[in-house]
Amino acid sequence: MQDSSAFQYIAIDQIHESTTNPRLTFDQTKLEELAESIRQHGLIQPVTVRPNASGFEIVAGARRFRASQLAELFSIPARIVELDDTAAMEWQLVENSQRVDVHPYEEAQGFQRLLDMPGYDVAALVLKSGKSASHIYARLSLLQLIPDVAEAFVQERITASHANLLARLPQEHQAAAYEQCWRKDWQDKEPHLLPAKHLSAWIETNLYLALADAPFDREDVGLNPAAGACVACPRRSGFNTSLFSDVQGDQCLDGLCYQTKVAAHIDRELAARPQLVQIETTWRPAKEQRPGTLAKHSYRELDTPDNPDAEPPCPNTKSALIVFGRHAGKTITVCTDANCPVHDPQEVARQARQETEHPAPVMEEAPNEETEEEAEQRRAEYEQRRKEHEAEQQRRDEERKSQSEKQLKEYEAEQKRREKLNKARTATFDRILDSAPAMFTAAQLRTFLRLLVHIDPYSFLEEVASHFAGNDENAQQSDEEIVLAALDNTADDKLISFGLRLTLTGHVSIPRENEPDPLSEAEAVFAPPQPKPSKSKSASKSKETPSPVKTLQKRSPAKRQKAA
After folding, report:
1. 2-144 domain in CATH 3.40.50.1010?
2. What distance in Å separates the CA atoms of residue 145 and residue 154, rounded to the nearest whole number?
3. Among 15, 78, 87, 247, which is disulfide-ready with 237 (CB 3.0 to 4.6 Å)?
4. Average per-residue pLDDT in the chain?
């Protein structure tokens, strides 16, 4: 690369933008603001261009160039450099990666353009851009988003945290996971975006399959030849620990491949050990079951280990293979006799009572044949029991219906109670921040340090950043950058309030049962509720001065609007 000059003025109509610039979106409002600044003070920082057949192509400074066009400048200062296509793309990538307002998806596209060129890999990008390998892998994964999710991300309907979680999933699961980003409560007109931690929890519960619990051999390439062995598969979290640094254990992300291997493992086990009893742990229609399979509740799972050569405690104890349902592919030991005198406690107790109350006679007599009168009596008893059973079923159905209606009313009342409590806790949170002292007392410092212990590392930065960012459309800064910028602009006497916001933001919501409540603990030392005046004192004061309660009532709508 050679510089033609330090910089010189070039007619603006001789300059054109680059087609390889990673930045594709520009905030029109901010362009207008920059254009107004250029009208008053001129373009202080020159753009960087390289000569080509059409004039001069912008290498760095597309935003300044567009604002200069809006300011109707005839010429702008430019630094002219000699660069080939590869060097120009590298320059653009580095220049844009150092700016906070470049959209992550555009940055990912810039990384990919360089990777498509000879001699570039992730290690080279780390060296050239100064970014970490985990950052680059996270950006590149965004290119795996399906079109609908990618569009939502570019339009900032979801955050970068949501997009990163979705991009790590196989594309066939992204649409279902994207639906979990939203929730519409009974008081909402439109669904609202949930914090990324809710999406992360749903993915972990519904899409991750722990390979440590797999019933098959993870090094076996023959279970699914098209996919190969699990240990070398890229569709698992352990394949790229930089991208899945927050995921515990080695998780399979391809449920279809996992189930294919489970089915192949089951077929192998049955071929090698045909004496295995086939069982199902989840109910399904009989026509869908394998022939000869025992349905749920047709066997009793035993705690004894699987050892086919051991002496069984009863003739009906066998080794069984789970062919459908939870833990499919696992071999366990079961008893196939529903009334086993060894494993069924009720049958054991019944036989014990029978032996005690009715000892066996020395000589058994041949049973008498049932007479017509006895048969008629037996049928009448059966009919009576059937009617009693139907009456009992009807009573239970009515009881369940009544219980359901009661539960619905209780649920609605609980929702209203929680809504009221949430508003009260939000007001308490604001009051703590407003009452934050300039310096800690010993008790306040001790409470603050306890709050640090309870801090939620997965949500507090995102929520705090959203508070400081507000409605700012320049939302491409990371959460950490937004919060640090807010800290730099915080007055000295508000630093403790800032620290309390960091530690308490994740605890405004109602805690679960038996969980600590850091918000209440902080309220006790930072903003204890003021004691209410007694009735007698209130009555005497009301004759002399306006009621403080009425004054508060006049201001409460504004306060409620401010809190909202």
Report:
1. no
2. 11
3. 247
4. 77
